[in-house]
């Protein structure tokens, strides 16, 4: 972290209209958060049913606010109109900032980012919510890489306060400033970090998962480890957190981290055999996403 997020904010162009590409777990959450804090957002996907799911989730979250007396039904209806679902790029001409949140596949992300860059204004900021792909690498095919940076939210978006704003090699200050300001307008806490495998949070988190995996391989009871870490003061232990993250996602991110920092990630690669987390994937215990991970969910 070189410059504090607040130092960028002074030069920010305000984001009056945002857009998110992808209406999945993250895209839907980002649309809800933006709408809830008052910034209109276009939510684009390629599948009608994905858009329906994204909207359904937002309606559910707004309804909870009504139940808790934090919103009236009229306010809820008004906030919902801030989300504009779409299957086309028709209205992208006056968007100030785009968050790309499509599937974690470099080829798909490249295609989507170059496509949208050709349709938005010259000053529009493009960002990516990628967890593992280098921001410098994603900027390679863009004609205005200075207008591009990472905007990494955590799942679930409405509950997790932190947003990593990632500077690629060619990212300009205006892109960082607008992204920091938008994160704050969404009620989040942005931090500005340089581009590297795992950015900041996963760089700390994955060696921890590796240490946990090694303990389990050596015979530790995962439930006891969770209880110990809770007593230590963490809101949840590593086994439960891995169930939330998803075992397949963790293995994939672990591989990216191991490439960047082999000395730190050896424990997660499992030495000569397979790591406990890799074995979980082989046994189709992916976590909460398929109702069975370290724990069982119904
Ligand atoms: P997801 O599979 O739930 O959603 C992806 C959505 O993108 C789908 O609805 C899909 O139809 C849509 N899509 C695919 N191609 C598209 C295109 N060309 N245009 C528009 N939409 C398109 O995935 P997710 O979990 O929401 O992850 C999205 C991104 O966020 C990934 O880069 C992931 O690494 C990152 N991320 C995920 C998490 C997490 O915990 N799930 C956390 C942080 C970051």
What's the rounded overall pLDDT mean? 94
What radius of gyration results from the CA coordinates? Answer: 20 Å
Instruction: Report the CATH topology name of the largest domain.
Output: Rossmann fold
Bound molecule kinds, no repeats:
nicotinamide-adenine-dinucleotide
CATH level-1 class of the largest domain: Alpha Beta
Amount of beta strand: 5-15%
Unreliable stretches:
none
Structural class: alpha/beta
Can you write the helix and strand succession as a string?
HEHEHHEEHEHEEHEHHHHHH
The level of helicity is 40-55%
Description:
α11 packs across α13 (276-282). The radius of gyration is 20 Å and the shape is globular. The chain has 298 residues and is α/β, with parallel strands linked by helices. Strands 3-2-1-4-5-6-7-8 form an 8-stranded mixed β-sheet, with helices on both faces. The chain has helices at 5-9, 25-36, 48-67, 73-80, 106-117, 135-139, 173-185, 201-217, 222-232, 238-245, 247-260, 262-269, 276-282, and strands spanning 18-21, 41-44, 83-86, 97-100, 125-128, 148-152, 162-167, 189-194. The longest helix has 20 residues, at 48-67. The chain has 2 domains: 5-194, NAD(P)-binding Rossmann-like Domain (Rossmann fold, 3-Layer(aba) Sandwich), CATH 3.40.50.720; 201-290, Orthogonal Bundle (N-(1-d-carboxylethyl)-l-norvaline Dehydrogenase, domain 2), CATH 1.10.1040.50. The termini are far apart. The chain contains 13 helices and 8 strands. The site of nicotinamide-adenine-dinucleotide (NAD) has 24 residues, from α2 and α5.
